[in-house]
């Protein structure tokens, strides 16, 4: 649904731009195709690697890792797994739900879900391309810490 | 710079292909699962990336710098941060789709903290994702994680801004990016007829040669005196910036 809205916004604004000023629209499309050329192949190969990784590591492995009885260990592990993997939300949430039902640590699951989306180890090369190494490392580093804090906060509240 | 980055690019491709071939030989079932997942990702990329790139291009060309600085700049305050959270959370697509948009906003004068907020909330604060989360894990879990995450994201933005200077990002981006920026600036001022009178195929190639110092502006016979002065000014300004850095 949001994807359709996004595409609609892009198409309508582009049409508006075309009616207003053809030269500027040409420039816009030039910039867009350049961005596409620069980013597409890299994103594609990274996602292919992520897919391969997910195919090799079955969900059951993640399940055993996150189900560890040592609380601190499973929280850190949850954050670590979330950091290095990209799992689509429609896979991650059912997985997390079944983990919680089978008695896994809630804080570990929260850490896993938050780092999963906020910190991207796999997408770091793309981030570096746009913003440089320092920015990427600092942003991802602080995000990991924040994710663990969020997880602990949830442990206190829930 | 150019050669090492192209080797790096190919390295990623080569590694991916080798790993896939290895998987095919060792376990074809895993290979086909991975191919299927990749196809799913590819579909998502084709749905989202063109739209994202068009919007980034439109921002770069149309939105005046002052508007971005007012709403997303250093002085935009809490309102700017909340707008950033809002923009990130209504946008579709995974985190890598946020980078080009954030990058063009940064170039237009948005502050680092707001850029970080847009990237982070683009990744985490998502309405469709929250619906899935509350369905599988529970409404209470989802809402508390959401309430804790928004201030955390604003805090992350604040911290990153404290730790890194905007100038450093632009510098870290490498000389290559800076040079291509300069090429674009020069190219934009050229007549854009691609007449070939200067001996180069296009105005773009001519601009590249100018930046590298391989040719002289006077070779562009259809440009006016005034225009050449403007381009010379751009080149001189750039040299000054390089020296002061």
From TrEMBL, chain A:
It holds the Pfam family ArsP_1. It is a multi-pass membrane protein. The chain crosses the membrane at residues 43-62, 74-100, 106-125, 137-157. One of its GO terms (cellular component) is plasma membrane. It is found in: Cell membrane. The keyword Transmembrane applies. Its main location: membrane. Belongs to the UPF0718 family. This is Permease. It comes from Thermohalobacter berrensis.
Automatic annotation (TrEMBL), chain B:
GO terms for molecular function: 4 iron, 4 sulfur cluster binding; metal ion binding. It is found in: Cell membrane. Keywords: 4Fe-4S, Cell membrane, Iron, Iron-sulfur, Membrane, Metal-binding, Transmembrane, Transmembrane helix. It comes from the Bacteria. GO terms for cellular component: plasma membrane. Coiled coil: none annotated. Residues 178-237 form the 4Fe-4S domain. Its main location: membrane. It is a multi-pass membrane protein. The chain crosses the membrane at residues 12-33, 45-62, 82-99, 137-160. Belongs to the UPF0718 family. This is Fe-S cluster protein.
């Amino acid at each position: 649904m949001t994807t359709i809205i996004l595409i609609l916004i892009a198409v309508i604004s582009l049409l508006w731009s075309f009616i207003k000023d053809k030269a500027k629209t040409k420039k816009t499309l030039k910039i867009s195709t350049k961005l596409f050329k620069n980013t597409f192949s890299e994103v594609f190969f990274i996602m292919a690697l992520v897919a391969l990784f997910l195919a090799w590591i079955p969900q059951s492995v993640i399940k055993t890792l996150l189900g560890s009885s040592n609380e601190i260990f499973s929280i850190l592990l949850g954050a670590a797994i979330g950091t290095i993997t990209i799992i689509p939300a429609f896979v991650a949430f059912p997985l997390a739900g079944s983990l919680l039902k089978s008695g896994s640590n809630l804080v570990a699951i929260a850490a896993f879900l938050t780092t999963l989306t906020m910190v991207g180890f796999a997408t770091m090369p793309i981030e570096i391309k746009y913003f440089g190494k320092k920015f990427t490392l600092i942003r991802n580093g602080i995000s990991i810490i924040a994710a663990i804090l969020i997880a602990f906060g949830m442990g206190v509240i829930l | 710079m150019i050669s090492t980055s192209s080797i790096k690019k190919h390295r990623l491709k080569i590694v991916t292909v080798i790993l896939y071939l290895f998987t095919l030989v060792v376990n074809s079932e895993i290979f086909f699962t991975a191919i299927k997942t990749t196809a799913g990702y590819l579909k998502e990329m084709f749905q989202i990336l063109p739209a994202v790139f068009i919007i980034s291009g439109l921002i770069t060309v149309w939105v005046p710098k002052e508007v971005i600085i007012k709403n997303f700049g250093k002085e935009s305050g809490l309102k700017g941060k909340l707008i950033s959270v809002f923009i990130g959370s209504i946008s579709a697509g995974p985190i890598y789709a946020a980078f080009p948009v954030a990058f063009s906003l940064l170039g237009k004068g948005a502050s680092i903290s707001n850029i970080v907020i847009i990237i982070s909330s683009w990744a985490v604060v998502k309405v469709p994702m929250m619906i899935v989360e509350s369905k599988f894990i529970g409404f209470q879990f989802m809402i508390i994680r959401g309430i804790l995450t928004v201030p955390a994201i604003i805090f992350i933005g604040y911290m990153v801004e404290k730790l890194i200077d905007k100038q450093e990002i632009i510098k870290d981006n490498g000389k290559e990016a800076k040079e291509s920026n300069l090429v674009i600036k020069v190219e934009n001022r050229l007549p854009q007829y691609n007449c070939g009178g200067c001996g180069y195929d296009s105005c773009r190639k001519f601009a590249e040669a100018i930046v590298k110092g391989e040719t002289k502006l006077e070779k562009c016979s259809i440009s006016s005196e005034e225009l050449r002065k403007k381009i010379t000014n751009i080149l001189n300004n750039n040299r000054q910036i390089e020296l002061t850095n």
